[in-house]
């Protein structure tokens, strides 16, 4: 199957940030093209999005049922859907796709609750169709490099992880389409900041270290007056090997834009990566030496090198990282393996993380096992 | 004309860096799609590139004549070509396109010599078809912002410009497809480093200041033993308003990747932009205050904002900057204006810059008028 | 009293890091000179230090009693002592000085335990002699500037504080004079990392915000096998106005040198200072603007300006910050006020912090009131 | 001679920036103490400075003759003088000191002209007393480290040097004591910016590379209207081994504080040091690797290590660098060698540099030999 894979989009209509990002990312490598979608739950707005996306208006559908039915009849029907709608739509959208035999690429979090996630995991297992989650940051070449270096022992045994995701855009009133649903429990789920960005930090920490979080202590709060969901999260972690962790996520830190950063310290070295300067990795050795590992140089291993599109010094960023996930997903659809592509396991773990943290914080429960981990589960 | 514009590519086949970049950039906004090409002067390699680019093999042509003839017969024939071949091909490729009534987007430099550039300028004028040049760096949102700020008087009257373009990849032997032609006068033209990257620095300086360079003093050298073309350039500049300038370009500075940086100082402030951290601009005021202007914040003016695709903190880079030029070019093809899109004037001035500098350096001529400027021209 | 003030030193003999630092700092402004000392509990080593410090060997005393007795008899006897010995010496040294009517400048922490600190506080009150603590980081000009900006409302109401103190030098075995006593409960007290550097972070957070910590949740651990005292601390904080805080201190983060950093976020802005680049302050405004406030520019307020010794761009660092505390202390000895000089209150609060955190962590007590704060005290 | 060496100061009275800096630097290591001075050509102001410096008023002399005569009669008379007055005083002050048999530490430049410098060099030779120049930046530990690394072949054969010294404080009118004399040819000499800061850049380039500049091409200008001396300098260099160089110095770059930076590229690597972040050195290898060499780590060689006073991460800066020169000078006075301490040769070369550049620029002479270098000398 050498043709371009055909993507339908669910959500992502006018005013959305993430819809166009999915389109850019999916199409960047010419493996995939956007051909159809239900871009909004409002049929008129879905239709209007056809022009924005420059697709055939006949394929901008009013609802999921119509899309899956219509596309199934076409010879050139969609191969998969991308789910870019708010969190509470993730389960019904994925369910409809899987029922239609269509593969699914979904925005994180997997669903609006852990129970939903478990339900979806079963549906996926039954359907036997590819399913992946856009934990975008794991698509950055130097995140892959960091993972490879840790796995190769560059910093020795991991002892300490500090992962932060700092934003400030919800420090004031949550106006605008991007903000509104994120602070509404009915649409976002039980987690606010933790579900929106905390899960990215969580997934990144497990991804780079190759270690699972087993316990946590969570302190979540809604700092902005009147807010129903958390907008500031401080969480202490323990990893399966005993390593200590700190996960900080906030959306009220004025001036922070998208400050995802991870520091990992082992008994032989340390490693630092920052999303806002994504093309370099700092590597400390216990002998006092410090190396800047830069994208596009001969210092980069093959996995990260293959996910870099330009020579060193030509900055690549968020869209390219996102596109790396779609490249992996396209490979899967074509029958290849993409072991680092986030999927069901990441989804379930992230939802368990959110649910554990939200519950533990609400109950002021101190240290608790991550749901699904620990002797008591 | 709401359909996607159809692009043919000239050059950019297997092993090329810049071909895929053109494709990414052209298609990013879904205004354009790559449908055809003569990807190599070797017919077999051109055909082989069809698979890489996922286009119809029937449209991977063996030569320009065949492409233009065949495409002209199609209802869905190409709207324009992108020229991504080495410098000495630029003129013949553009000539063939214009003769076929096809618009042209071309890699810089415009041609291999100023005489060729002048010839091409006339052809373009006669053909009346859109023509643009991928001076990529002028596509960065914060370069647009910098230009707007200077124009609005943020730093007062410009007094001093320092523009640097630092690379180190040609510090050793020039191996590999990317390097070989760049150090060969028959393919690159009379300028080596100056034609490859010096012109970017020159265009950027004129673009951001809105001022023309009128005189220069050039010191070019081939530092690596056995090299025929310059790989290190130090050039002093004078601008039309009397402002002083320094342009440094080098390809032998080990460790520098793609270090294009510009600093502009006026009587009221200063401004710094660096391509390797492109999403911020430093703005100094004469009162001692210093501001970091960051992409995606409310501090950014409308022109730059419109060329940013993601919220602040989601790094955008080289491909997105490149895509901004294609977006402008698509607008022109659709009949709109895009006054900041580099074109003939930039091309001619850059070629005059190269020719002036190469000649002046060879003759150790001291300060000379830029060809086309000054009383003696 | 226009003469230079005369300082005696306790501890700080050969091999110590902090002894010479006290000497540099005390003498920098020529307000003070080192003239005497008990540089070691070993009389021979104390005497040997006279040469290192270039003081009269007759004034390098074998013990405290001899020093205070001998100096009291001199016309040019010491005006104050600096205590630079390990923590468990702080109380006896200060007691001896106060008994001799001599003022005291002491290394932090105030003592080895809170009980000792309270005892010392009473002795100071009785003695009526000046007493100050070298919480060095509060001496940095831009820390003073940060405090002034927060107080003036630059970031609005403080909501969130993240203060980190990252080091890596104890990631391996704790060899050498500097390391040994710090990991020994008999000499360091109940806190390891928390008493050595955590208290600096605590004091800095209260100093810059002007807010008191009232509650905390502590997770301390000895990460390096075999270590008796904590070397890694994660502590959640609540401030008196309800603001949330995170305090991270570690001595096992390989590659971190002396990474003290503070971020403070309010409802109108944010502020960042990093000790390793101490001459700038980042100030974020809620309108998306970001300013770099640089030492030595006209943007700096009078208090910070007065504590800067060179023009902007001439880096000042740790010794100058330390010297600013001595300048304040000299002012106090001469009868002036120095309201920002850390003293008894900072000492007591820091000891309460250590004791609360060590106890709460050991008992896994969750959130607890800071000893001395809260309704239950 | 284990006693502290006794320093007299010439110039450096009230309002001066550099006088107190000399005092801080001289006394930091307790090798030296300031005891006397002619702090101003105005006797009353000289006397008034005694209080500022806390020295015996009887030793704040009205003129040089009185100082040298009076001090010669004392048992505890001065061992050397520091010359901190404007450039045109350097020769007469040094002459008087040498005539009195007193050693000299002098501000750069050596004198106000090359002819004067040659006269002084002869006087020094005759007097046989130590003489040194405060080319402060060569006292930074990581500048010493850079020199040692280059000498050890870390970057291979030097091919290219870019040294910049950027300031902005003279972008407006030159008000205030610091500025006035620097723009006055009668006091500063023939060079403005070039004599004030350009010589630092020149000395640094020769110091770190270990190579002599043999030819140059200079373009100096007075950018600010009405200014008599240059305030902006662009100079191309050739080194004795054929390496190419660029030296940029400016005092009109608004927002630049004290931006001295050097980049050196060889055939095997590259090296970058910046005065404003002086505690790290960037080292590029031709294999694409980049190392950050940080002060106070085990990566630092013995010479730089010995000039660092605190552990890594405790920023040291300008005063400590300056003090390193005084430490070397004290060693020389005590009979030891200090081969890296700048002295007569640096002074003569710098003056030749200024004179060559000023003359060549005025005459628009193109490439010229550095006076004293080349076949024609």
Q: Quick one: which chains have the greatest interface?
A: A-B, 41 and 41 residues
Strand content of chain A: 15-25%
How far apart are the termini of chain A? 44 Å
Structural class of chain A: alpha/beta
Mean pLDDT over all positions of chain A: 94
Strand order of the largest sheet of chain A: 13-12-11-10-6-9-8-7-14
The largest sheet of chain A, given as strand count, sense and whether it forms a barrel, is: 9 strands, mixed
Count helical runs of chain A: 12
CATH class category name of the largest domain in chain A: Alpha Beta
Q: Could you tell me the radius of gyration of chain A in angstroms?
A: 20 Å
What's the total count of β strands of chain A? 14
CATH structural fold name of the largest domain in chain A = Dihydrodipicolinate Reductase, domain 2
| Secondary-structure arrangement, i.e. CATH architecture of the largest domain in chain A | 2-Layer Sandwich
- The sequence of SSEs of chain A as H and E is EHEHHEHEHEHEHHHEEEEEEEHHHE
* Assembly type: homotetramer
């Amino acid at each position: 199957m050498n043709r371009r894979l055909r993507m339908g989009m669910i959500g992502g209509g006018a005013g959305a940030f993430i819809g166009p990002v999915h389109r850019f990312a999916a199409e960047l490598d010419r493996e995939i093209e956007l051909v159809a979608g239900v871009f909004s739950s409002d049929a008129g707005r879905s239709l209007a999005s056809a022009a924005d996306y420059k697709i055939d208006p006949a394929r901008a559908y009013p609802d999921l049922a119509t899309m899956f039915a219509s596309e199934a009849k076409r010879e050139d029907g969609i191969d998969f859907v991308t789910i870019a709608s708010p969190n509470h739509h993730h389960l019904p959208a994925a369910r409809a796709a899987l029922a239609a035999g269509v593969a699914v690429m979904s925005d994180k979090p997997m669903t609006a609750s852990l129970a939903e996630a478990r339900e979806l995991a079963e549906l996926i297992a039954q359907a036997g169709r590819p399913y992946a989650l856009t934990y975008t940051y794991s698509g950055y070449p130097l995140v892959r490099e960091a993972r490879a270096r840790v796995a190769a022992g560059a910093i020795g045994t991991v002892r300490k992880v500090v992962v932060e995701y700092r934003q400030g855009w919800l420090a004031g009133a949550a106006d605008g389409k991007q903000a509104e649903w994120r602070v509404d429990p009915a649409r976002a789920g039980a987690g606010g900041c933790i579900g929106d960005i905390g899960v990215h930090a969580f997934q990144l920490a497990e991804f780079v270290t190759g270690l699972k979080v087993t316990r946590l202590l969570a302190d979540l709060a809604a700092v902005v007056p009147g807010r129903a969901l958390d907008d500031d999260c401080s969480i202490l972690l323990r990893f399966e090997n005993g390593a200590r962790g700190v996960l900080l996520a906030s959306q009220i830190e004025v001036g922070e834009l998208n400050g995802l950063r991870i520091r990992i310290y082992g008994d032989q070295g340390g490693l630092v990566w920052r999303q806002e300067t994504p093309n370099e990795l700092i590597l400390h050795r216990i002998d006092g030496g410090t190396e800047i590992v830069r994208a596009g140089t001969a210092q980069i291993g093959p996995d990260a090198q293959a996910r870099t599109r330009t020579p060193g010094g030509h900055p690549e960023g968020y869209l390219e990282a996102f596109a790396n996930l779609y490249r992996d997903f396209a490979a899967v659809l074509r029958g290849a393996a993409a072991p680092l592509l986030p999927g069901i396991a990441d989804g379930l773990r992230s939802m368990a993380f959110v649910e554990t943290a939200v519950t533990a914080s609400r109950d002021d429960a101190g240290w608790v096992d991550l749901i699904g981990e620990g002797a008591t589960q």
